[in-house]
Design a protein that fits this description.
By secondary structure, the protein is an alpha+beta fold. Helix content is 30%, strand content 38%.
């Protein structure tokens, strides 16, 4: 029971910490790095996205998720106003039978067809093209998965009524922002584009999450190794860490609200007292993120670790890594005269 509840707490915490992402630091001096995309039509980069979750409870350590996804991004168009980036799913696999339903569902939805993101001239993602079409293909794929799951395990319905979950699912997919969140691997890669960051270390206090949050950001150019084909002059990184503290009373209220939305009334009532007894101290959320970029603005590597901790009782560590696998840039457009070069590693 304790592990089930804490997984829900971790889910809630993930939603809260998403608001504490890297903040823009406005500056116009030479001591700043501007994250800007310098892409050409047909540029292609393939990425490997891995996720793992570890839960520590009562001295026991359990791996609750471990997945790997491959996808590629293709510059479908490049204009003075921005870029059109096509997301193409390649593969998804899991080597852990306890992986969360969410990962499987999201891949079932994303693998339906390629989608196109539109950015501004700096590479900041501004919209998902034809998002309603994406939604209309994703929802049947996800609901179909649930139909099979409940048919195979009918006892689940007494704890987590199918109609509750599917209603919440449809409600969550009713706008473009929600559909974009399905592709967090893409939005995560480009979350810094269009921002300027002071070189060096900065510390700041932030309240956009609604809770006290301390932010630390370190920005620098990468060390250049002339013997390494993957090392380029002008590559840079942005390292961000944040700590959010949620008072225990509010953590209890939020968790109970989440339970009441998804689970049956009987199950929610039975677990409410357990939650109130278990979450008897503030919840701490630590988010550590590394962004590494090629000089051209193509993301090279993004690492994110979310640590959710309630005293010394529960700790959940979620680690995500998105790393380039191979790329092809500066290939001549078939509609243009020959020229330029190609790099394929």
């Amino acid at each position: 029971m304790r592990k089930v509840i804490f997984i829900l707490v971790a889910l809630l915490a993930t939603a809260l910490q998403a608001r504490a992402q890297t903040q823009a630091i406005t500056a116009g001096e030479d001591s700043t790095i501007n994250v800007v995309a310098w892409f050409n039509k047909n540029d292609t980069t393939e990425y490997v996205y891995t996720k793992s979750d570890v839960l520590v409870s009562d001295g026991d350590t359990t791996r609750t998720g471990n997945t790997e996804e491959k996808f590629r991004l293709v510059v479908a168009d490049s204009t003075s106003d921005g870029y059109r980036l096509k997301f193409e799913p390649i593969s998804w696999k899991s080597d852990n039978s306890k992986d969360s339903i969410k990962s499987s569902l999201m891949w079932a939805a994303k693998s339906q067809a390629p989608v196109v993101f539109a950015t501004n001239e700096y590479g900041k993602i501004e919209r998902l093209e034809k998002w309603r079409d994406v939604r209309d293909k994703a929802i049947p794929a996800i609901t179909g998965y649930f139909e099979k799951l409940y048919a195979k395990n009918p006892a689940i319905d007494s704890i987590m009524p199918k109609k509750n979950y599917l209603s919440l699912l449809r409600l969550g997919f009713n706008n473009e922002d929600a559909i974009r969140e399905m592709y967090s691997e893409v939005t995560g890669l480009f979350s810094c584009h269009g921002k300027a960051f002071n070189i060096g270390m900065t510390n700041d206090e932030d309240s956009t999450t609604g809770y006290p949050t301390h932010l630390t950001t370190i920005v620098s150019y990468e060390d250049v190794d002339t013997t390494d084909a993957e090392s380029y002059l002008g590559d840079y990184f942005i390292r961000n860490s944040s700590i959010v503290t949620i008072p225990s009373d509010e953590a209890k209220a939020l968790t109970n609200s989440l339970l009441g939305t998804i689970f049956s009334k009987d199950f929610s009532d039975k677990t409410e007292s357990f939650i109130n007894d278990s979450i008897d101290m503030p919840m701490e959320i630590r988010l550590l993120t590394d962004y590494h970029f090629f000089y051209s603005g193509w993301p090279k590597l993004v690492r994110k670790q979310t640590i959710v901790k309630v005293g010394e009782i529960w700790t959940n560590v979620a680690t995500e890594t998105i790393e380039w696998n191979r790329y092809r840039w500066n290939e001549p457009d078939d509609d243009q005269p020959d020229g330029g070069g190609q790099t394929d590693l």
